[in-house]
């Protein structure tokens, strides 16, 4: 029967995922906006802050954020004008450039994260037990490997490390 087709739990899972994503995104967008950030800008800042040397190759940053190369260039241009990031030459590849988190970018991120964590506790992860959150994270990582295998590109690349300051 057709109704069985429409009641498939896979459709329900996808629908719930979209509903939760959109609902949580709307709540956290307000937090980011209060700190002068868009969701993409937050995504760039947090990925740089969690990367070795607080920097990533532009191509790896594009892969991690699922933005196109031109999309990440536009975001970095805007963030560079705001003093949140800067570009640097990649020591391991003269054709590539790095996006580097600036102290101003780190300060902006540090101001955004505490209220963001409060919002996430209220609207998302705080609704799950520690065991549920662990299982949820495990499941999301498993799915991400299939749909976005380059989502952690450059996160541990040795040639993305800062040059020796000596």
Automatic annotation (TrEMBL):
Keywords: DNA-binding
Keyword DNA-binding appears in the UniProt entry: yes
UniProt entry tagged with the keyword Lipoprotein: no
Domain HTH marR-type as annotated: residue spans: 10-145
A Pfam cross-reference name: MarR_2
Gene Ontology molecular function, alphabetical: DNA binding; DNA-binding transcription factor activity
GO terms, biological process: response to stress
Gene3D superfamilies on file: Winged helix-like DNA-binding domain superfamily/Winged helix DNA-binding domain (1.10.10.10)
PROSITE patterns linked to this entry: HTH_MARR_2
SMART domains referenced in this protein's UniProt entry, alphabetically: HTH_MARR
Top-level taxon: Bacteria
Signal sequence, start to end: none
Record's protein name: DNA-binding transcriptional regulator, MarR family
